[in-house]
């Protein structure tokens, strides 16, 4: 890890090491905010937290750049907390352990937090590095982005003075993002009365593992396996054909991550145990045939378990699981205005069932608000049909693209000078904070960019080291090119 902190640019990697050493799950960002405040105090930089717990640090202009427009650098400080099964990592207390793999850096069986830690570390560089040339800056560190963009949604209007926002949360170099999807969640809660497990039953613990997972917006187009949909499909067979009853389900950990694993316990008549094992083997073959190319590590296995005293009734097992099977998931519509971009999708993210209560979380995204909510209505109707109570989370707006803005044209010119080519202009199917921030500060001219990060929101998350250096150099060149005040 110490060697990683010495990689160029040291301004980013030393600060990213500090972030990896500081636990920062969503809603638990206090330690990292205090770290940033201490860094600002050491430099004598003014700072404040707003009512949404977002931190703003003012960095004065360097000599010769005082007449430039004020730029805002923005990143979120929280991270998605996903670990491989069997990991004992405690995201509330344990540091993230970085690993070097060729030109890539990943973490030891957990998410890395490069999303959006690399962007935040770059901003920290303007508090630790001398000799950087730039005009007046505001460093906006937002909180709770990964859980629902609530930091951005609670940003106080009128307190920031900048005119140009550079969001550092895009995950492919040589690209500029100028628009994004909005989104909204829903949680379906189903209450049931557990019934006694009669004699002559056996219990099986099912483990569905090995899926890649990933970002529920960016990666939804890849056709990856969804652990909740696959588990529901298998359970439908054994409930219908073998009289199985559900005891527990535990699958998915984040609304914005495609679920990689699902664990379920069922009971069934002992004389059906052999048929259960055969059904499991057949299902494994089917799934590998269907998605084995994209999900080569998919696995499903079952082992004997202690027979519980109570389980979901046969009727409720069927009703609830049918709703999971029937719930919408994946890409729903492609954009008619931007080729190759997903317009509307939904992620069947989390299923938790035990002791008389089941909760299912789904997250919908769309560049069109009405389409987002129409898809949430589809999911709502599926679960209301079984008597579940459905609650919608607050929706967040998308970011309407303006590919010909002053800041975009400036960034394109800098890109051509540095790399000899134009950047790709993109609109992404993910919930960047720019949409929300722009609703608070409509006059901001915004663009988003970043280094190459793969498999965000999963333990396979990795960041491309050479791209981080190019990202840093591009950011420094862009700040030198910020136009003068009108």
UniProtKB/TrEMBL annotation:
Source taxon at top rank: Bacteria
Signal peptide feature range: none
InterPro entries, per the entry: Peptidase_M20, Peptidase_M20_dimer, Peptidase_M20C
Protein name as it appears in the record: Cytosol non-specific dipeptidase
Catalytic activity, EC: 3.4.13.18
Gene3D superfamilies membership: Zn peptidases
SUPFAM superfamilies hit by this protein: Zn-dependent exopeptidases
GO cellular component, one term: cytosol
GO molecular function: metal ion binding; metallodipeptidase activity
Pfam families documented for this protein: M20_dimer (PF07687), Peptidase_M20 (PF01546)
Residues spanning the membrane: none
Protease is among the record's keywords: yes
Cofactor: Co(2+); Zn(2+)
Highest classification ranks of the organism: Bacteria, Pseudomonadati, Pseudomonadota, Alphaproteobacteria, Rhodospirillales
Family under the similarity heading: Belongs to the peptidase M20C family.
GO biological process: proteolysis
Catalytic activity: Hydrolysis of dipeptides, preferentially hydrophobic dipeptides including prolyl amino acids
Coiled coil: none
Keywords per UniProt: Cobalt, Dipeptidase, Hydrolase, Metal-binding, Metalloprotease, Protease, Zinc
Chain ranges of the Peptidase M20 dimerisation domain: 207-290
């Amino acid at each position: 890890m110490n060697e990683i902190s010495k990689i160029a640019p040291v301004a980013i990697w030393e600060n990213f090491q500090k972030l990896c050493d500081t636990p920062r799950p969503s809603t638990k960002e206090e330690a990292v905010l205090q770290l940033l405040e201490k860094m600002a105090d050491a430099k004598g930089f003014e700072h404040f937290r707003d009512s949404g717990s977002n931190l703003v640090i003012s960095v004065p202009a360097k000599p010769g750049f005082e007449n430039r427009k004020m730029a805002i650098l923005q990143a979120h400080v929280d991270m998605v907390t996903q670990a491989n099964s069997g990991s004992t990592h405690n995201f509330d207390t344990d540091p993230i352990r970085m690993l070097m793999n060729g030109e890539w850096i990943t973490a030891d069986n957990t998410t890395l937090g490069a999303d959006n830690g690399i962007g935040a570390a770059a901003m920290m560089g303007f508090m630790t590095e001398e000799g950087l040339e730039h005009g007046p800056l505001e460093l906006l560190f937002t909180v709770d982005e990964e859980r629902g963009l609530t930091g951005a949604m609670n940003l106080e209007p009128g307190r920031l003075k900048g005119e140009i926002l550079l969001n550092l949360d895009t995950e492919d170099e040589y690209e500029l993002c100028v628009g994004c999807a909005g989104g909204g969640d829903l949680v379906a809660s189903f209450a049931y009365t557990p019934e006694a497990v009669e004699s002559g039953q056996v219990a099986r613990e099912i483990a569905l593992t090995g899926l890649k997972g990933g970002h529920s917006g960016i990666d939804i187009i890849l056709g990856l396996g969804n652990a909740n949909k696959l588990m529901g499909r298998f359970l439908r067979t054994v409930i219908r054909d073998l009289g199985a009853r559900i005891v527990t389900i535990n699958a998915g950990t984040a609304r914005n991550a495609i679920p990689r694993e699902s664990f379920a316990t069922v009971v069934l008549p002992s004389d059906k145990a052999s048929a259960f094992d055969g059904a499991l083997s057949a299902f494994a073959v089917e799934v590998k045939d269907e998605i084995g190319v994209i999900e080569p590590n998919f696995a499903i296995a079952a082992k004997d378990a202690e027979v519980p005293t109570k389980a979901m009734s046969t009727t409720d097992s069927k009703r609830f699981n049918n709703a999971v099977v029937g719930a919408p998931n994946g890409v729903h519509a492609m954009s008619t205005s931007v080729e190759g971009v997903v317009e509307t999708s939904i992620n069947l993210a989390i299923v938790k069932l035990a002791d008389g209560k089941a909760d299912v979380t789904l997250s919908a995204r769309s560049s069109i608000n009405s389409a987002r909510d129409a898809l949430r209505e589809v999911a709502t109707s599926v679960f209301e049909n079984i008597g579940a109570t459905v609650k919608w989370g607050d929706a967040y707006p998308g970011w309407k693209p303006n590919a010909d803005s002053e800041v975009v044209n400036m960034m394109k010119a800098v890109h051509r000078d540095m790399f000899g080519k134009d950047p790709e202009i993109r609109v992404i199917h993910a919930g960047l904070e720019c949409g929300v921030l722009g609703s608070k500060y409509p006059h901001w001219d915004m663009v988003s960019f970043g280094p190459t990060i793969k498999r965000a929101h999963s333990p396979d998350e990795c960041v491309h080291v050479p791209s981080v250096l190019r990202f840093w150099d591009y950011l420094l060149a862009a700040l030198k090119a910020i136009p003068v005040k009108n």
